[in-house]
Amino acid sequence: MKFFKRMKERLKNKMTDEIDHKPWLYLPIETKVRELDAKLLLAYYAVHHNYRVVLGLSGMMEEALECLPPGIFLDKGYIENDKLRRFQQAKKYGHKLLNLHEEGFPLTEKEIYIQKSLDQKSFNLLDYECCWGEVQKNIIISQYPGEAHKCVITGNPRFDLLQTKYRSLFNIGAEAIKERYGDFVLINTRFPAYTKTVNEKGKVNVKILSQLERHLGKYGPREILQLYKQFIVMIKACSQRYPHLHFVIRPHPSEVFSVYEQDLKECNNVSVVHEGNVINWILASKLVIHNGCTTGAEAFLLEKPVISYVPLKERKYDLPNELSIKVAKVKDIFQFIDHDLNQYDFNSNKFNEQRKLQLLKGYNAGVQDRFAHENILHLLNKIPAPKASPDHIEMNAQLLSKLKRENNKRIYKTNPIVMQKFPSLTVKEINSFLTRINRIERKGKRILVRQLYDKFFEITLEG
């Protein structure tokens, strides 16, 4: 009888330990429009798998690691010097360390990725590298074969959001955009190497150009300069030919938006906009045009017509361009709009969509049957996280001081590119998105969102 009583007590204690053992997961964000929704998707499923989550501005997260309970830090990928500093900070204060590089897809600039983002010192600190797909994993292993055991293919939750299951998350946003702009063509750009180098009069700053050439190679910035000018010519031509359509220019987050506004100020049916998740804009649009943008792959997976405008000779393989309907001349864009746009059907395979789907699978695990957030959680569950975890983050004087000092840095107040990457975030925004996910999943327990500081939040499950 005593034996069974002891066994019952042990079982009870084990169950209590499992319930109380809720590790902390730390999710830094640098660029709100690109990363926030995917991080919230992961956070939603994480809290339902017994995790507590802190989500916030990347710089604040790095500063706060000293004061936060030991947990799992899922970093977002940086160039090597920054990455090593962040990794050392995380390990110093007892955190497990994973990395999911936001630029790990499509790796068009493979040599720059190897040179700037991979290093043995950071791998020595890392527990796992979460890879978008086989291509990224193989590139890493080719450079560091001894680290193969740390490279796990997970995909990125950003691409989970493109799957049919989650399309309803963006219905309201897409409809609001349609009401505002009517029928429009979305043109995504990636020309920071040009827009950062010119002043209001269009004159190139040679000093900045030289810095970019040292970082990207001499050929890169000069090619971008030519490509930017070709895009401006194309946009003006489309604007004039199709006055009944609106053309929405969505620059890369690191671009200077005012350069476009200046160069396109005479086009009444052109707007330069950068707000909200790009999925809203893709779904609302009639057509997407780009050159080498991840948006090309996103539009393809959303089964929208997408053109890659390639007026210059390509010097490297570019996956988003290969997934798109590739054209070299403005008249070819006219041809598509006039004859194919209204009849476009992804499933007709007129533009080799099925072959392109197979091509994409090697680059992104999210194209497969399993979602990336599931793969990541499966990996997280293998990591022995510290068992002594507080129920909530204590906002003590030390943590408050660190967050305040980071938030008051001059770069967040005066650098327009840094400011536009993460302008604001509220509890209401977070709750709205999590509520929409819950309409899909219909889980019973309520998720609690607590603001710890400006752009810094705790997300936990009730009870």
SSE blueprint:
Blueprint: H1 2-20, E1 24-29, H2 32-47, E2 52-57, H3 58-64, E3 72-75, H4 80-92, E4 96-99, H5 110-117, H6 120-125, E5 128-131, H7 134-143, E6 151-153, H8 157-160, H9 171-181, E7 184-188, H10 192-195, H11 206-216, H12 219-241, E8 246-250, H13 257-263, E9 270-272, H14 278-284, E10 287-290, H15 294-301, E11 306-309, H16 319-323, E12 325-327, H17 330-339, H18 353-361, H19 372-380, H20 397-407, H21 411-414, H22 416-421, H23 427-441, E13 447-453, E14 456-461
Parallel strand pairs: 1-2, 1-3, 3-4, 4-5, 5-6, 7-8, 7-10, 8-9, 10-11, 11-12
Antiparallel strand pairs: 2-14, 13-14
Helix pairs in contact: 2-19, 2-23, 3-20, 9-14
Keywords, separated by commas or semicolons:
Rossmann fold; 463 residues; 6-stranded parallel β-sheet; 8-stranded mixed β-sheet; 23 helices; alpha/beta; globular
